[in-house]
Amino acid sequence: MKTIYFDKDIPRVLATKGAARFKATRGLLFTGINAVKYAKDIPDPPLPADNWVRVKNIACGLCGTDVSFFKATTGTNSALEPIPASKKTFLGHENVGVVVEAGPAVTQVQVGDRVGIRAYMAGCDNKDLPRCPNCAAGNYSICTNYGAKPRFDLEWTGAGWSDSFIAPQQQLYKILPELTLEQAVMIEPASVAVHAVLMAPPKAGEKVLVMGCGVIGLAIIQALKVIQPECEVWAMSRTRDKLDFAMRLGADHVLSGDALEAASNACGGSPVYKGMSKKNRFFFGGFDRAFDCIGGGWANTMGVRLLRARGTFVKVGHHMNAVKYDETPVWWQELTVIGIDSHGMEEWEGRRLYTFDLVQEWIRDGKYTVDGFVSHTFKLDDYKEAFRLALRNPPGVFKIVLDCASDT
């Protein structure tokens, strides 16, 4: 097995954090001090139980979560920190693979099926535990057993950034045979976007802002137009290529220039009032809802100031650490704040199904496109170059994918 993982070794994690903090030292992230490691000669682990399978990976996307591990951004002030975790976290969850071995009790997939990872975080399905009520309802992203010990204490399992991995069958989902490899590798990020919009669906005529036009923000713009074609969508980004892509995917407008002034003009709001500090400004009558795909203190502070009274702030972007922001508009303007964690079980047109299944149907039926998202591909052995490009993020970079099947 070849696999890339985050090593929870505290001195190494602290060194990684230090290297990521300053531009002058970020080159050290690509040296041996990084807590993200690459093991190339691990014997393939045996299946620990009859309900487990072995998957040979074909490809896997690079996600913002992977970047967070590469920079060790999780803070000791985060709610994530006190939860017990394994010494190794295997990277990669936007994968496409093929089942090459299945235990005798496996019924949900079979050898030869294309599959991907559905339950990546350490909940019941990942740990092969009896399902808690949330997982039983299909909402594995809010599992109550994150802190519980797994059924098996395994040193090596692998995940999406591996040439192969092992997993309990319930952790996986089947990929429709009609989908191309490029479409299949985009199922997971598209599922995040669709889940976010279904958690806070706009009404006809509402004015909606999408903050940040990375892959998730772009995918949300398209999901908004599929779920509610009669809402009006503004895209907000610092880069022209992403804004152009947003318009192709259905955005109606670009929020350009000063964000507060532009939002007030777009929504027919009040004048923008200025405080003693020129940076402290506020207006009334903004967007009906905003999807934050940036994360962090600035995005939180700005996002809640761009909403009308009783508007909705949908929190999608994050950096896995505690942040500071001005919460005044939340209580003063009686805002609704909705947190988004990946995907789960959806209600759509009288049906109840996993986000992954809904998204696959939409892609297959031409309702939702992922064409043009995959912009760069690297071999698994060249994962550092993939990270280097992701950190630079020059124009033209959208979804970066690792080829897990090719040899160097």
Describe how the helices and strands are arranged.
Blueprint: E1 3-7, H1 10-21, E2 36-39, E3 52-61, H2 64-71, E4 88-90, E5 94-102, E6 114-117, H3 124-127, H4 133-136, E7 164-168, E8 172-174, H5 181-184, H6 187-199, E9 207-211, H7 215-227, E10 232-236, H8 240-248, E11 253-254, H9 259-267, E12 273-274, E13 281-282, E14 287-292, H10 297-305, E15 307-315, H11 328-332, E16 336-339, E17 345-348, E18 351-354, H12 355-364, E19 374-379, H13 383-392, E20 399-403
Parallel strand pairs: 9-10, 9-14, 10-11, 14-15, 15-16, 19-20
Antiparallel strand pairs: 1-2, 1-4, 3-5, 3-7, 3-20, 5-6, 6-8, 12-13, 17-18
Helix pairs in contact: 6-7, 6-12
Give a written overview of the molecule.
- Helices cover 27% and strands 24% of the residues.
- The strands form five sheets. Strands 3, 5, 6, 7, 8, 19 and 20 form a seven-stranded mixed sheet that branches.
- It has helices spanning 10-21, 64-71, 124-127, 133-136, 181-184, 187-199, 215-227, 240-248, 259-267, 297-305, 328-332, 355-364, 383-392; strands at 3-7, 36-39, 52-61, 88-90, 94-102, 114-117, 164-168, 172-174, 207-211, 232-236, 253-254, 273-274, 281-282, 287-292, 307-315, 336-339, 345-348, 351-354, 374-379, 399-403.
- The radius of gyration is 21 Å and the shape is globular.
- The chain has 13 helices and 20 strands.
- The mean pLDDT is 96.
- Helix 6 (187-199) crosses helix 7 (215-227) and helix 6 (187-199) crosses helix 12.
- With 408 residues, the protein is α/β, with parallel strands linked by helices.
- It has two domains: 3-186 and 371-403, Medium-chain alcohol dehydrogenases, catalytic domain (Quinone Oxidoreductase, Chain A, domain 1, Alpha-Beta Complex); 190-339, Rossmann fold.
